[in-house]
Amino acid sequence: MAEMTIPLLRKELLNAARDGRIVEDSALRLTVNPLRNILQDVRKTPRFISTVSQRG
Asked: Which parts of the chain sit beneath pLDDT 50?
């Protein structure tokens, strides 16, 4: 499988999730954490989902 790195800003993810609905910032965290668990991804050594500080 080829590695694909597509950085998305928090704002972009929230806008996609909103789609005309009211979505709070905490919804992103509450969604990403279960995804990490399903993918067996670890924050300190991520394979799929990484957080880049100070990027949005």
From this structure: none
